[in-house]
Amino acid sequence: MLKTPSTPFEKVNQTPPQATVARLEGVRFRWKPKGPLVLDIEKLEVHRGEKVFIKGPSGSGKSTLLSLIAGVVVPEAGQVQLGEIDVTKLSGARRDALRADFVGFIFQMFNLIPYLSVLENVTLPLAFSKEREAKVKAQGETAGEAKRLLGRLGLSPDLQARSVTDLSIGQQQRVAAARALLGGPPLLIADEPTSALDFDTREAFIKLLFEECERADMTLLFVSHDGTLERLFDRSLDLKTLNRAATL
Amino acid sequence: MNLLKLTLKSMLNRLGTTLLTVAVIAISVVLLLGVEKVRTEARASFANTISGTDLIVGARSGGVQLLLYSVFRIGNATNNITWDSYQEVAAHPNVAWTVPISLGDSHQGFRVVGTSEAYFEHYRYGRERSLSFAVGTPFEVVYDVVLGADVAAELEYTLGEEIVIAHGTGEVSLLDHSDKPFTVVGILNKTGTPVDRSLHVPLEGIEAIHIDWSGGVPIPSRQLSAEETLTRDLTPGAITAFLVGVKSKPGIFRLQRDINDYRREPLLAVLPGVALQELWGLMGVAERALLIVSGFVVLSGLVGMLSSILSSLNERRREMAILRSVGARPWHIFALLTGEALIFTLIGCLLGLGILYGALFLFRPWVEQTYGLFLSITPPSRYDLTLLALILGAGFVMGLVPAYRAYRNSLADGMTVRV
Description:
- The structure holds two protein chains of two kinds.
- Chain A is 35% helix and 21% strand.
- Chain A is an alpha/beta fold.
- In chain A, the strands form two sheets. A five-stranded parallel sheet of chain A has the order 6-7-8-3-9, with helices on both faces.
- In chain A, strand 7, helix 9 and strand 8 (219-224) form a beta-alpha-beta unit.
- Chain A is globular.
- The termini of chain A are far apart.
- Chain B is of the alpha+beta class.
- Chain B has two domains: 3-46 and 284-413, no CATH class; 55-270, no CATH class.
- Helix content of chain B is 53%, strand content 17%.
- Chain B contains 13 helices and 17 strands.
- In chain B, the strands form four sheets. In chain B, strands 1, 3, 4, 7, 8, 9, 10, 11, 12, 16 and 17 form an eleven-stranded mixed sheet that branches. In chain B, strands 2-15 form a two-stranded antiparallel ribbon. A two-stranded antiparallel ribbon of chain B has the order 5-6.
- The radius of gyration of chain B is 31 Å and the shape is elongated.
- The two termini of chain B are 26 Å apart.
- The chains are: A alpha/beta, B alpha+beta.
- Chain A binds chain B through residues 1-2, 4, 63, 66-67, 70, 72-73, 92-93, 96-97, 99-101, 105, 107, 110-116, 120, 123-129, 179, 191, and chain B through 1-3, 6, 9-10, 12-13, 318-319, 322-332, 414-416, 419.
């Protein structure tokens, strides 16, 4: 069985509405010690309940920014805070544990593990996060909650029973969204989740995400190069101006 | 969902390669343990075949060869020894008893041994165990035959059955001695030695069926009926070999030298124990070579597994990244892959054991019939288990390589794998 080191996030979920969920300050990052500076951000704050759009073409440091926020990498200088916790001060294992409890991910594509069923894919994070598991259990049965989420995201029971490889890209993204939402992690990071979808489905998908985030009191950080979507969000940031080390 | 389940599902997802990998390991395990099994059983069965005999005497050739054809009924004698020489040695003051052996005929692939009643009295196997009768008695008249346990069992012969002996030792014989059938008068108990696969007839019987033969073929003009033959002198002209028991053990070497220096005919006397040792010496080289070869087969099986896991790593990079994104720690990824290698090896070992025992069960009669080697079905020995543990250990160590690579990948890729 998997063990998750307990992490003190109860605090995070009880903070007042305007509390920050993610905060970067004076962050500088390069992949190799003597390589070029990839990211140089003076300040970035995401507040609880916000739906933030981060616009950035490729090369602007999008992926690096997400890796930093998720605690996969640590900056050479500056502070990265998830909730109240300074990620840069944690050990690798603690950062992993923090990520498991705190962040849900949706990738651009290939979000699902092909050999697991739809339901197993959705409930996968619970194997690595006791906290998210406990949250789901508090609401009832795990499979029931997963099915409810899938249903709300527009996947009929018939589709839920299919092999994930038989689903369309749009359907796969919904499964990925359900996985990211299950157990209500405080922060949902979506990395170009709609770029494989056509325009109409794109908006519908984002609206569904919004609804579910509001229901579960989650904060959404949405990264895309597609500026046409930014009007849907509370706030939009341009990584080109945010990141002083952007090469474009 | 725990790690083990995840590993198994992932392996099942690649069922084709998984099966092949497991099969390769299983085959190598079968080979390694099979070689080991044959080696120990061959030693045990050889060592148990003869005891209580002080010297084996035959025409001059090699000691091992003499041992093989006279006792193990493997191969053929280069030459016979004359009856006179046999009588002379038998009359030696230090000779307590002799058992003559005359080979060259067969029945349905089983060797026929011409001998005397002394065979049933003096032949010993295992730890000084003598032959005993399941039913019947030793042969008394010329056309009596005593069957080994396996002969009776396989050919379903009972007392009173009339059988025909074929000329030569092949399975299929074009010439037989159908004019002079033998009657089964006794069936021996099982011994686990070549005796089980032999038919025993009196020396006179061997002489009788060849009396109207010359140069290995029957001579039409000189045909004698079974009854007519009995009126002739049936003292054999030659025998193949004989076993000797001595009166005084310290005199063995003296007797051996006397026989080896026998002027009238080139004879060879060997001590069974010494000949067996010589045989070990010969087999030892082959045994070691086989063991080394099968060791390498196991190694190549494991390297095959390594390469199959390594080659799956690239296509699974995305899988690892997803796992990391949902909160799997690097050590989970590490455990996933070492676990996979261990499961591969474990299933391979178990399947190999299964195949080995299945094959033992299936091929035992055939091996026994063809090679006279009795393979007992026993649980894996301590040495076998050590070998299996070594294979498992090696599999685990092999698993560390892809695990470390995946671990490094997952650290470097983080959340953002570009497929």
